[in-house]
Structure formats: structure tokens, C-alpha cells
TrEMBL record:
PANTHER family linked: SH3 DOMAIN-BINDING GLUTAMIC ACID-RICH-LIKE PROTEIN, THIOREDOXIN DOMAIN-CONTAINING PROTEIN
Domain of life: Eukaryota
Pfam families on file: SH3BGR
Record-given protein name: SH3 domain-binding glutamic acid-rich-like protein
Organism ancestry: Eukaryota, Metazoa, Spiralia, Lophotrochozoa, Mollusca
SUPFAM superfamilies: Thioredoxin-like
Residue ranges crossing the lipid bilayer per the database entry: none
Originating species: Batillaria attramentaria
InterPro entries on file: Glut_rich_SH3-bd, SH3BGR, Thioredoxin-like_sf
Similarity field: Belongs to the SH3BGR family.
């Protein structure tokens, strides 16, 4: 079994910028056929704390990206800015740890 990309989002994001960033990440992942699981921090108990723990930032806001290996271990990958940088550099697969 192979690991997966976790996309932490919020279905009740008050910021248009956050909603736009979440949509941009979804669009890129889907267009590149990268398998991912969306985790809605507004509806999944404990997921906001998990996201913030992974990011090592008690104030972290979505979207945030993590990688979960086949054993369930999660590793923080980055935020929207890091994602966009990887897209621009052509290193998205490596960035997401799915290369």
C-alpha cells in the first residue's frame, strides 16, 4: 500500500483568500491526478489540532498539506505558498512525497 496526501481545509472559512487557496490546491491535485484526501477541520473532530501540531504552529490556518504513510504516520509538507512554489519549480511530486 502507498501513502497519501492529506489536504487540510475548512468548509466554513470566512476568508475569501483561504477559500481561493483551497480551491487552487484541489484543482492542481485533480488536474495532475494526484490522489489526496481532504480533511475538513470544521467537521472532523481533532483535525484542527492535528493540522496545527503537524505545522508546529498553534495559529496555523488552512489550507495545509501533509503526507500520511501506509502505517498512518503523518508528516507536514507545507502551506499554500510552499505548494505554489513547488508547482512553479516543477517539483510538486517530490514536494508532496509521492515521487
Amino acid at each position: 500500500m502507498v501513502g497519501k496526501v492529506l489536504l487540510y481545509v475548512s468548509s466554513v472559512a470566512g476568508s475569501g483568500e483561504i477559500r481561493a487557496h483551497q480551491q487552487r490546491i484541489r484543482m492542481v491535485l485533480e488536474s495532475k491526478k494526484i490522489n489526496f484526501e481532504e480533511v475538513d477541520i470544521a467537521s472532523v473532530d481533532g483535525s484542527k489540532e492535528t493540522m496545527r501540531d503537524l505545522a508546529k504552529d498553534p495559529q496555523a490556518l488552512p489550507p495545509r498539506i501533509a503526507y500520511e504513510d501506509e502505517k498512518g504516520n503523518k508528516e507536514y509538507v507545507g502551506d499554500f505558498e510552499a505548494f505554489e512554489e513547488a508547482v512553479e519549480d516543477g517539483t510538486l511530486q517530490k514536494f508532496l512525497k509521492v515521487a
